[in-house]
From TrEMBL, chain A:
Signal peptide: none annotated. Residues 6-244 form the ABC transporter domain. Keywords: ATP-binding, Cell membrane, Membrane, Nucleotide-binding, Translocase, Transport. InterPro entries: AAA+_ATPase, ABC_transporter-like_ATP-bd, ABC_transporter-like_CS, ABC_transpr_CbiO/EcfA_su, ECF_ABC_transporter_ATP-bd, EcfA_1, P-loop_NTPase. The keyword Translocase applies. It is found in: Cell membrane. Belongs to the ABC transporter superfamily. It is a peripheral membrane protein. It comes from Thermohalobacter berrensis. SMART domains: AAA. The keyword Transport applies. GO terms for molecular function: ATP binding; ATP hydrolysis activity; ATPase-coupled transmembrane transporter activity. This is Energy-coupling factor transporter ATPase.
From TrEMBL, chain B:
One of its GO terms (biological process) is cobalt ion transport. The lineage of its organism: Bacteria, Bacillati, Bacillota, Tissierellia, Tissierellales. This is Energy-coupling factor transporter ATP-binding protein EcfA2. Gene3D superfamilies: P-loop containing nucleotide triphosphate hydrolases. GO terms for molecular function: ATP binding; ATP hydrolysis activity; ATPase-coupled transmembrane transporter activity. Residues 3-245 form the ABC transporter domain. Pfam families: ABC_tran (PF00005). GO terms for cellular component: ATP-binding cassette (ABC) transporter complex. It is a peripheral membrane protein. SUPFAM superfamilies: P-loop containing nucleoside triphosphate hydrolases. Forms a stable energy-coupling factor (ECF) transporter complex composed of 2 membrane-embedded substrate-binding proteins (S component), 2 ATP-binding proteins (A component) and 2 transmembrane proteins (T component). Probably part of an ABC transporter complex. Responsible for energy coupling to the transport system. InterPro entries: AAA+_ATPase, ABC_transporter-like_ATP-bd, ABC_transporter-like_CS, ABC_transpr_CbiO/EcfA_su, Co_trans_ATP-bd, ECF_ABC_transporter_ATP-bd, EcfA2, P-loop_NTPase. It is found in: Cell membrane.
Length: 276, 287
């Protein structure tokens, strides 16, 4: 058993289209993510983040190059079932994920497909719905829920499958601040306590601060990579790329420019308070 | 008042097991040219409320009055209302339906009965306004775009109608930071240049803090707080109880104050925080 959960070797992906010449969404990407690692992926709209996620989940296969999940080649049809069981995915739009007519059944859908014992399924469904604070909606119809509520159900569905690796494509985009905090805490807990590998795609910079590694994509390439400290301390570069830094990082940066003596790598409220 | 909501209650699926009271006696007024931020926890009724404002949903009881016209009344002219009140949906997928991006954005203006030239001009302007490359993208299918690109097209479709009231349901969810800033800047500009009335639904306290004149906080189908951002964001504890929060800089200033620093408690933007801290440090002769 190796330590690597996800490996991309020189991966290119092109969306073919009849009307035009097609879109190259990924351009020769190399990437290796270790087991138990918490990675955040940032980047512009259209930079290839969702395409990357879909490749890892074997929803699409590379135009050229190789994608391995826990050593399994995603191009080999025989592996697909195992790959999806290893790497669970929360989609960018929950509408694409919700399949059943009742919330509880929707969350049970994944574990059922894994052939898990009904009693265990019940337990997992309850735990997952509790984790996203949606227990009271278990008998509801998913399509009648609000935007953020749907997003929570989609997250619960993946939690109930207990995959070793979880890929989340903007899971917090429609959540209120406390919901966002809860989801991030749940992800962190799964990572720290159960050593799950996490690949988290987001546009919220304060969520990226929590990761082991930040990967920045642009036009189908990885253009910047490193710990949150090394990435976000380059405030000017990050802004030039068109991304953002947390508000306290920005404040620290502005104060430094005014000649105030504070460290360059402030990422949290606590760090800035201590520095002043 | 361009918008008046009186005793508005909305019950989804009445008399069924799924009966949900999404709005419970909501009263509010929005003046012409106001820039309002609508915030509230998931499921608090924000989307339900704004869909009443252009007649997409009918009240179970109560009234919605737009520019003096009771649009909840029998026989109200909804075509006029939809021209006046433009609504960008929470999920762009619910808004996009044509086979090309051009046709999608042109749909509203064509329905307004505008000349072909005018439609053409507006479509082009709107697509560029949301930061997309018109020539590159006009003939592509909206369904083959990334999440954030779809959202931009959906926003362009409503901007092209040049409504008097622009309502945006979490327009920046899924946008990258640069896209977010550009689009919010355009919205602010529409507000300033044309005195457009804007209602912005958002979960980003940071965006709300730097843009709006007035905040309306929803909680469980009711309006629970109304006020200026500076006043509303002083109530951090109360907002947290409602599932919300305050901008990160506001939390930071609160923390400084807790540790005994004499700083103002109404700071909601990074700019203001900088000024306040410089005042504090320089006032003390430390810098
Ligand atoms: N089904 C599709 N057909 C054709 N092109 C597509 C399709 N899906 C995505 N693309 C294109 O591929 C590129 C990468 O898209 P992708 O969805 O991976 O971006 P993303 O980084 O996830 O963006 P976002 O932040 O907006 O979600 C974009 O240029 C997009 O327009
Ligand atoms: N079509 C529907 N049928 C039944 N109930 C609904 C429907 N749409 C929404 N609801 C319910 O009405 C309540 C208010 O939903 P609404 O979509 O207005 O919330 P919201 O404030 O926009 O939430 P979010 O921030 O998650 O988008 C929620 O409890 C939701 O489950
Ligand atoms: Mg995406
Ligand atoms: Mg909503």
């Amino acid at each position: 058993m190796s330590d690597v959960m996800i490996k991309l070797e020189n991966v290119t992906y092109k969306y073919e289209s009849n009307e035009n010449e097609g879109v190259v969404a990924l351009n020769g990407i190399n990437l290796s993510i270790n087991k138990g690692e918490f990675v955040v992926i940032l980047g512009h709209n259209g930079s290839g983040k969702s395409t990357l996620a879909k490749l890892i989940n074997a929803l699409i296969v590379p135009t050229s190059g190789k994608v391995y999940v826990n050593g399994m080649d995603t191009q080999d049809e025989e592996n697909i079932w195992h790959i999806r069981r290893t790497a669970g995915m929360v989609f960018q739009n929950p509408d694409n994920q919700l399949v059943a007519t009742i919330v509880e059944e929707d969350v049970a859908f994944g574990p059922e497909n894994l052939g898990i014992h009904p009693k265990e399924i019940r337990k997992r469904v309850n735990e997952a719905l509790t984790a996203v604070e949606m227990e009271e909606y278990k008998d509801y119809a998913p399509h009648l829920l609000s935007g953020g509520q749907k997003q929570r159900i989609a997250i619960a569905g993946v939690l109930a499958m207990k995959p070793e690796c979880i890929i989340l494509d903007e899971p917090t985009a429609m959540l209120d601040p406390s919901g966002r905090k809860e989801v991030i805490n749940t992800i962190k807990k799964l990572n720290r306590e159960e050593n799950k590998t996490i690949v988290h795609i987001t546009h919220y910079m304060d969520e990226a601060v929590e990761a082991d590694r930040v990967i920045v994509m642009e036009k189908g390439n990885i253009i910047l990579e490193g710990t949150p400290k090394t990435v976000f301390s380059q405030v000017e570069k990050v802004k030039q790329i068109g991304l953002d830094v947390p508000q306290v990082t920005e404040l620290a940066y502005m104060l430094r420019k005014e000649g105030i003596d504070i460290p360059q790598n402030i990422l949290t409220i606590e760090e800035l308070v201590s520095a002043l | 008042m361009i918008i008046k909501v009186e005793g508005l209650t909305h019950i989804y699926n009445p008399n069924s097991p799924f009966e949900t009271k999404a709005l419970d006696n909501v009263n509010l007024e929005i003046a012409k040219g106001e820039f309002v931020g609508l915030i509230g926890h998931t499921g608090s009724g924000k989307s339900t409320l704004i869909q009443h404002l252009n007649g997409l949903i009918k009240p179970t009881s109560g009234k919605v009055i737009i520019d003096g016209v009771d649009i909840s009344a029998e026989g109200a002219n909804l075509k006029d209302i939809r021209q006046k009140v433009g609504l960008v949906f929470q999920y762009p997928e619910h808004q996009l339906f044509e086979e090309t991006i051009y046709k999608d954005v042109a749909f509203g203006p064509i329905n307004l009965g505008l000349s072909e030239e005018e439609v053409d001009k507006r479509v082009k302007e709107a697509i560029e306004l949301v930061g997309l490359n018109y020539d590159k993208i006009k003939n592509r299918s909206p369904f083959e775009l990334s999440g954030g690109q779809k959202r931009r097209v959906a926003i362009a479709g409503v901007l092209a109608m040049e409504p008097e009231v622009l309502i945006l349901d979490e327009p920046t969810a899924g946008l990258d930071p640069k896209g977010r800033d550009e689009i919010l800047k355009q919205i602010k500009k529409l507000h300033q240049d044309f005195n457009m009335t804007i209602i912005l639904v958002s979960h980003s306290m940071e965006d709300i803090a730097r843009l709006v004149d007035k905040i309306i906080v929803m909680h469980k189908g009711r309006v629970s707080i109304v006020g200026k951002p500076k006043d509303v964001f002083k109530k951090a504890d109360e907002l947290e109880e409602l599932g919300l929060g305050v901008p990160q800089v506001t939390y930071f200033m609160r923390e400084l104050k807790k540790r005994g620093k004499k700083v103002r408690d109404d700071i909601i933007t990074v700019e203001d925080a900088k000024e306040e801290i410089l005042r504090l440090l320089r006032g003390n002769g430390n810098a």
